[in-house]
């Protein structure tokens, strides 16, 4: 399947009987920095793929605006790519990092060339960038922005200057909504969801697993230390965007039952997570949602984690065990406790609280409320 030609949107399909009264044309603004394809660079890219796919399955017309190299099945309209900067501009000693300039160019180009966005009934800003919010008032279509992170300087600045008539906000957890409440008091919580048909239960019983981006804020070194104390070993999987961190803080801890398996394809990752007795989740920051928690539960794998951010919202006493933040001894105890939990209870928690169908239903409801 190829990308839609410039200036044209994908063919609108009929609504699914009993689910939607009317098809919508939705512009989904995604990440410009990372392609939306498996294996996903992170939870944001996985979430965007799930949302776009779920909306299309309901018969809605979805145009995804994203980075180069994305999944062809998404029919992504690629955002503008920054041409090579002049030698003169690179002499500026205050020049930001290359990726910052590239992202700024991509989103500025998208918002200035408003044609494709103007043909949408609603624009859903699913990116982490400030420009779609700052320039929302230039669009005819209303914009919904999902808050995936705590306030950051650039994003907070745009939110302060927004036009309330043109923007509405959702947050991926009550925790994240609370962090934004001083600036955005009216936030609808729409928790992320996972496809329960793609994340399927496994047999369990194997060595615990840690999966996600191997970066400092995810705390894989603490998970390793806790697993060593618990005597269980640990298998790790995921991308290594911070190679220096991995080399200096994680790699020296490998061996003796601690194994790094690489950045796995979806099928292999589902098998790995489903085979584990426990999924260890060790955030060192206030995790806005924690998609790996929902994915583990969908595989029937109980979770042992730090009680940070939204994790206490996702887990209950039947599906996981929590320890105080950064408490390695407590996390070791949580691993032992989680290994005794019923796998069917973990899967049930995913079905009742973490379904992508529930997430799509809630977003469609918001889209309809936004339409003039």
The number of domains is: 2
Rounded to an integer, what's the Rg over CA atoms? 21 Å
Span between termini: 34 Å
Strand count, sense and barrel status of the largest sheet are: 7 strands, parallel
DSSP strand tally: 13
Helix content: 25-40%
Total DSSP helices: 15
Q: Write down the overall geometry.
A: globular
Mean of residue pLDDT values? 92
- CATH superfamily annotation of the largest domain: Glycogen Phosphorylase B
SSE-based structural type = alpha/beta
The string of secondary-structure elements, in order, is EHEEHHHEHEHEHEEHEHEHEHEHEHHH
Strand content: 5-15%
Read across the widest sheet, the strand sequence of neighbours is: 3-2-1-4-5-6-7
CATH class wording of the largest domain: Alpha Beta
Report low-confidence residues grouped into runs of 5 or more: 1-19
CATH topology of the largest domain: Rossmann fold
CATH architecture annotation name of the largest domain: 3-Layer(aba) Sandwich
Summarize the structure.
This protein is an alpha/beta fold. Helix content is 36%, strand content 14%. The chain has 2 domains: 25-193 and 355-370, Rossmann fold, CATH 3.40.50; 209-353, 3-Layer(aba) Sandwich (Rossmann fold).
Describe this structure in words.
This protein is 36% helix and 14% strand. It has 372 residues and is of the alpha/beta class. The strands form 3 sheets. Strands 3-2-1-4-5-6-7 form a 7-stranded parallel beta sheet. The chain is globular, with a radius of gyration of 21 Å. The two termini are 34 Å apart.
Could you outline the blueprint of secondary structure elements for this entry?
Blueprint: E1 25-29, H1 43-57, E2 61-66, E3 77-78, H2 87-90, H3 98-112, H4 115-118, E4 122-125, H5 131-134, E5 143-147, H6 153-160, E6 167-171, H7 174-180, E7 187-189, E8 209-211, H8 220-230, E9 234-237, H9 243-250, E10 258-260, H10 266-275, E11 279-281, H11 291-298, E12 303-306, H12 311-314, E13 320-323, H13 328-338, H14 343-353, H15 356-370
Parallel strand pairs: 1-2, 1-4, 2-3, 4-5, 5-6, 6-7, 8-9, 9-10, 11-12, 12-13
